[in-house]
Specification:
The chain has 156 residues and is mainly β. The protein has no helices and 14 strands.
């Protein structure tokens, strides 16, 4: 009995994912969280799969005084790319006679500092307290990308 040759059937098409992918690139490297879930520090090893729809991405680095939020809209089966660059400047703080230093809410140690502090551009609070005199001072500074800002606090 002769059989008629049938063409091979094409392979089944891959199902379209019901999720979307989010690829995140930053400069410098920052901590990433989406919807309150910590994902790690950039560069991430792979794209993040999330349900389609709107998402809030938080980019942060405590040492740089950085906390930014980005909104993204993911579509099923598609990759969305979020690229963000943050420019930095430097801050040098002099405290007389000396003081415990906090910048952008982060403890930086006892002055004098060994080197300037790198921060993202923008406004930051500089706070120093001197245990010897019992005095403290806070000053708001504006960090400009690529520049060094100097702050002098007198706690005598």
């Amino acid at each position: 009995v002769a059989r008629e040759a049938r063409p091979a059937e094409p392979p089944p098409s891959a199902p379209v994912s019901a999720r979307g992918e989010l690829w995140i690139e930053t400069d410098p490297a920052v901590e990433i969280s989406v919807g309150g879930r910590r994902l790690g520090r950039t560069p991430l090893a792979a794209a993040v799969e999330l349900p389609p729809g709107p998402h809030t991405v938080t980019l942060s680095d405590e040492r740089l005084g950085l906390r930014a939020k980005e909104s993204v809209e993911l579509r099923p089966g598609e990759r969305t790319v979020l690229r963000r660059s943050f420019r930095t400047g430097r801050l040098m703080v002099f405290v007389s006679p000396f003081g415990e230093l906090r910048v952008a809410g982060v403890a930086r140690g006892l002055t004098p500092l060994d080197a300037p502090i790198e921060l993202v551009e923008g406004r930051h609070a500089v706070h120093a307290t001197c245990a010897l005199t019992g005095k403290s001072a806070t000053e708001q500074v504006e960090i400009v990308a690529g520049r060094q800002t100097t702050v002098k606090l007198d706690l005598r």
